[in-house]
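Name: Pimeloyl-ACP methyl ester carboxylesterase
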Amino acid sequence: MSTPRIVLVHGGFVDGSGWQGVYDLLKQDGYQVAVVQNPTVSLDGDLAATRQVIDAQEGPVVLVGHSYGGVVITEAGTHESVAALVYIAAFAPDKGESVNSLIADPPPGAPVPPILPPVDGFLFLDREKFHGSFAGDLPAGQAAFMADSQVPWGVDALGGAVSEPAWRHKPSWYLVATDDRMIPPPAQRAMAERAGSAVTETPGSHAVYVSNPAAVAGVIAQAAAR
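Structure predicted for Pimeloyl-ACP methyl ester carboxylesterase:
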């Protein structure tokens, strides 16, 4: 069996450049890696962008999603080339679920992401609270750069519902970030359990893919080895 290609899918408020640390480690280990640049305007648009990248790969694909990218890979993962799914502190919705439905009823005491009211159909995180909520384990300067370079996240992307969850048919892995203040760790564990994912836990903020690329690359390598 040929070595699987790795396709990395980013989430909301950020772009694909945050994967560089993970990309570098995987490349060092001999993997071919592609990074999707989601427009994050609508789920349909992000699915199209992801499928375009999957179509360009030769051989089986390990599809990796962070945060909202988990919604994208859950739907795009039904592609015949996708052999495995990897969720990195990500949403793993079931049929009919969206980001909106998954965050609609947070557990008591859970941190509330500082998402500002939509403007012209797009969302941003409060820049003053970005460090503590999204990237608490990154240096202040790096978190400030991420806050000031946010990508607008379309409300249509949050409302996009999954029609056929790929994790029902394909093996999946899940990395829980135990210090996440965007998607509560108990919610991550519950989604991973429902999906039947092989679970790894590591200390880390929601930006664990940036702060701890070795842990993330390690889980991806587990999926690729399968």
